[in-house]
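_Full entry_
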Amino acid sequence: MCADTPDYRSTVYLPETDFPMRAGLPAREPAWLERWETLGVYDRLREKAKEAAANGAPRKPYVLHDGPPYANGNLHIGHALNKTIKDMVVRSHQMMGFDSRYVPGWDCHGLPIEWKIEEQYRAKGLNKDDVDVVAFRQECRKFAEGWVDIQREEFKRLGITGNWANPYLTMDFHAEAVIAQEFMKFLMNGTLYQGSKPVMWSPVEKTALAEAEVEYHDHTSHTIWVRFKPVAGLEGASVVIWTTTPWTIPQNRAVAYGEKIAYGLYRVDAVEEKSTAVAGELLVLADSVAESVKTAAKITDWTRVRDVAASEFEGVILKHPYNGVEGGNGEWDYDVPMLPGDHVTDDAGTGFVHTAPSHGDDDYQMGVKFKLPMTYNVTEDSSYRKDLPLFGGQHIFDTNGKEGPANVSNIKQLAYSGALLAKGKIKHSYPHSWRSKAPVIFRNTPQWFAAIDAKIEDGKGTYGDTIRERALKSVSELVTFTPATGRNRLHAMIEQRPDWVLSRQRAWGVPLTCFTKVGALPTDADFLLRNEEVNARIAAAFEKDGADVWYTQGFKEKILAGIVNPEDYNQVFDVLDVWFDSGSTHAFVLRDREDGVPDQIADVYLEGTDQHRGWFHSSLLQGSATIGRAPYKNVITHGFTLDEKGMKMSKSLGNTVAPQEVIKEYGADILRLWVAQADYSTDLRIGKEILKGTADSYRRLRNTLRFLMGALPAWDGKHVARDEMPELEQFILHRLAELDAQVRRDYAAFDFQAVFQAIFTFATSDLSAFYFDIRKDALYCDAPDSLERRACLSVMDHVYHALVTWLAPILPFTMEEVWLTRFPGEDSSVHLLDFAPVEAGWLNADLAARFAKTRAARRVVTGALEVERTAKTIGSSLEAAPTVYVSPELAAVIGSAQGFDTLCITSGLKISTEAAPEGAFGLDDVAGVKVVFEKASGEKCQRCWKILPDVGTHAHPATCARCDAALSAAGL
């Protein structure tokens, strides 16, 4: 610019905004949280729903029922993932026109909390059993209360909306009363019974465990091959069993065989020096595994004598390996029958299964079928009963979960008795308690069960007459699963599961509120006291004083007085499985709360995929028993969190990612965006590099929003009618309407990855890289009253309202900032709005099809110009005026060269339908478009920088006609 040329920079309408490019989320987000709390956003939305109903336009209730986390520690990244997905569901449905409610909850009873208090006791040298049970329970309550407060603030810091002032706690007095009432429905409908069967038992925690409380880890076990001698038959050959639990041999009651397995009689001819096999002995084995037994027993040579038909085992009686053993006192001098079993296979072991009905489900089922005696040799700490001959008092696992002497003692005794054929060790997957991380055992104990195949006559049989029938019908027909694979998984679990074990031998929980008749057997009709007045008294007492009252002196007498003689009944002191607590939340949350739902059925249950065997499962069973169906319409599951390498997170590996640290470095919105960008139906990876990528996507999106914010202060508040707009603006409105339908559809389908990807692509490709790039010239340089400028600002206002509301469920902090920057005010918040209305009439498929072809042609032009820019022939596209060679048909689609040069951001452009010259630039994926570069002719306008022939011929020096008119209109 020469000295005589005026400086036109002050006349250009550049963006103006206080919206910063750097978000500063970690420092700024807490202020927005405080603002939302002061404003009472959640409560205002509930009032909004009431006003809508009063005006005859009610908003349909939408309830995501919260699966309660345990109140026993700081949040981990899995919590953040779970609660963020839930929040996106709640917020998006609210903005789609529902009255979307969310009541956060906490699981406050159960072993996790009780275990923490016991750890504190052990550190002080105290014994829990020496403490008054009510005092112990109150310590558990206090511990839970403290962690509820801590976790509540951590959840709120993530931007999670909900009724934080009034959450639900399973230890609230009303909740405890309802849980007891729900249990007593099982008591009254006949599904409750006391039985004795093997359950997974934790020797460390001394309690039964549910499947959901067990995890599987590698474990090295002893393996033994044991001879069982026949009393008669089988030519005196030993039947050989194989087991990885030598400690169960004292409880053996039968040997099972497979009726379709091919067996053979083998004579040992030669053995290695240290083999316990004996030359000349006869063994019966399944043929398919005989060689593996030969190797394990160090047999060097043998002869297969003949086939042994499975029918030969019928009626055969074997001797227990400890039969007649010295010091056995006749404990094992009983018959051991051979019995057919469908569970017996020949893919491992020996083809025979040692059967101990007290220590395995298959074994138990055999025991029930063939009336085998149950044994009670193993006590709650996994030691043998003290009066058991040879092994009394020996532990399977000690109180720290380490192996006790029981296995080795049995192996030695088997060897001494001549029954041990071979021994070894095997590393395999074995169940462990997920709390203590110690191995568990199957142990026969008296427990309380819900019979899931018992007929219920409660008038709620629409979907079946048993718990199992109702649950299976619910899964098959009443519930939608996201992802869909969840249906088959849960269906298979319900189809195959045994009766529900309801009892736990612990102190902190809701007791099994029932009484048993003194001297009666569990099979007697009057064993359980079933009385509605008694039930009502219990519920009233719990409502007033909580479940602690069950443990107070004289409670039984008070409750039973005037109804039955208290001395005739025993009070049960087991507590309910904590999954029964959370499985009952649909009653005291969905049914009883004002913000619940009348039919007691939630729209959504959403948890990790492990909850198919946890909360989804227990809620399904509980609801099927008490309301006749599942208490939910949708089940959504998400995967687990892994590190960047796909490894499971572990403190010992040092690869954990704490949500608090992510928030401290990046802000909660970046953590939420990580969730939205991922496919949550699978396991999700997170780490420094992944979060850097997430932050980069956020910056690109923020840049788009900042451009909008900078331009919109110039808008006069009046929308240009769509039909009066240039086609470019009409196309952007079409994309907006198209995207609105997709965003709503994907939000309704809980597909947040698709939502964000669609919005992000629109923002960065359609807007920043295309529309904004093209319209910068009109925004900066056109006169304020030009149609293109006014139409552009109108479209940008529509885009602004759409983007800020569409993104609010995902990025609540940032969208609040975007909203308040433009619409400040004490009562202003984007979270009080619905999605911006988008007119269906904006859709124009024909226009979109034309623009698809035009944008493809534009890509060839920009490609050609990039070649020249790289060669430093030009510095800007405005220095170019290329010739574009296209077919007559495409020329008709593109329209005028003047309009196309605007789209291509060139100072000039020619369209030719002639054949392109040799060497013209093209792109392989765009057929029929070629470009020949030419420099623009004329002078550079010192206001808009276009190079045009007329520059310098107007009243304002060094300007083009458009800029000269704009300056004149501005009075300059």
